[in-house]
Amino acid sequence: MIPFRVAFEPGVSLYEQIVFAAKRAILAGQLRPGDPFPSVRALGKELKINPNTAHKVVGQLTAEGFLAVQPGIGTVVALPPEAPRPIRKALLDKDLEQLAVTAIQAGIDFDDVVQALRRQWNKIGKGAPQTK
After folding, report:
1. Mean per-residue pLDDT of the chain
2. In the prediction, which pLDDT does 10 show?
């Protein structure tokens, strides 16, 4: 079983979508340092993708430091809990774009979107940041 979810979307390469989903799971703490990562074979079989694509995904995540290959153990999550801020911020871009499109289509004012985000942020318990 793959320890993260991939919502396949047309127009975006499978490879990019899987890399994004894996990074997101790692940065969100769904996968923690030392956790096993699916083998190329398991990744290909579960996601029904070409083994070459699965190999490319694992290679990319390894090259970026998200995964480490440990002889005798396999591929494991290697990213420390605090990833660089630009990586964490980049993972939000897609969600923010989707939120903006949905809000515009629904005719929701920007200030209302900000207020809704603040309510959700507070509900989670983080306390909304102060605006200037």
Report:
1. 85
2. 85
Residue with tokens 């774009």: 97
The DSSP symbol for 65 reads T
pTM of structure? 0.67
C-alpha–C-alpha distance, residues 22 and 6, integer Å = 8
CA neighbor of 42 nearest in space, from 27, 23, 55: 55
How many whole angstroms separate alpha carbon 70 and alpha carbon 128?
A: 41
The single-letter code of the amino acid at 108 is I
What is the CA angle 51-33-20, rounded to 5? 45
Tens-digit pLDDT profile for residues 22-46: 988 888 788 888 999 999 999 999 9
Q: Which amino acid, one-letter code, is at 116? A: A
Residue 14 backbone zone (phi > 0: left; psi -120 to 50: alpha; other: beta) = alpha
